């Protein structure tokens, strides 16, 4: 064999190894993103499962607040049945969060409810879950950042493009618009 043929074979093998390694990196990051999205779903499911108990507890103290309780349950059901991408599910969950805030606002109007041990326990569980959901969202966004950076940098972008759209930019989860506004504090 000539030296030229050996060099061509070595370069071809090296290119195949680089492409395979890069492809495997893309697959790993994409799977990590899907796992992060599944973690968010699991935490949201836990939160959604707490809501009927919370609503039943509130019903005992705030019987004439039926409109608020119905809105919370309807928003919960809509969020649970939301399909599509992680971003679509996140939008449905943000609508649910708005109604959930109105449920907790009721506790301010009903001191007996606020003092109820079952209500406080459910509220504590929900608070803990909110922290876990926030961490899962942060993790998801970190994975998305790594994935997007990896597929957009040279020469990875060439390799990603070679696989015909299998590796496309993933969307970040963003905070709700009303949470972006400055909080007005008055003393």
Protein traits:
single chain, 187 residues, mainly alpha, de novo design (two linked rop proteins), 7 helices
Rg on CA atoms, Å: 24 Å
Tell me, briefly, the overall form: rod-shaped
Mean pLDDT: 87
Oligomer: single chain
Determine the N-to-C terminus distance.
86 Å
Helical content (DSSP H or I, runs of 4+): over 70%
Query: How many β-strand stretches?
Result: 0
Annotated CATH homologous superfamily: LemA-like domain
Tally of distinct domains: 1
Secondary structure class reads: mainly alpha
CATH architecture call: Up-down Bundle
Count of alpha/pi helices: 7
Biggest pleated-sheet summary: none
Q: What is the chain-wise order of helices and strands? A: HHHHHHH
Low-confidence stretches: none
Q: What is the level 1 CATH name?
A: Mainly Alpha
Beta percentage is under 5%
Characterization of this structure:
By secondary structure, this protein is mainly alpha-helical. It has a single domain (3-172), classed as LemA-like domain (de novo design (two linked rop proteins), Up-down Bundle). Helices cover 81% and strands 0% of the residues. The chain has helices spanning 3-61, 66-81, 86-109, 111-115, 117-152, 156-162, 177-180. Helix 1 runs antiparallel to helix 2, helix 1 (3-61) packs parallel to helix 3 (86-109) and helix 1 packs antiparallel against helix 5. The longest helix is centred in the first third of the chain and has 59 residues, at 3-61. It is rod-shaped, with a radius of gyration of 24 Å. The chain starts with a helix and ends in a 7-residue tail after the last helix.
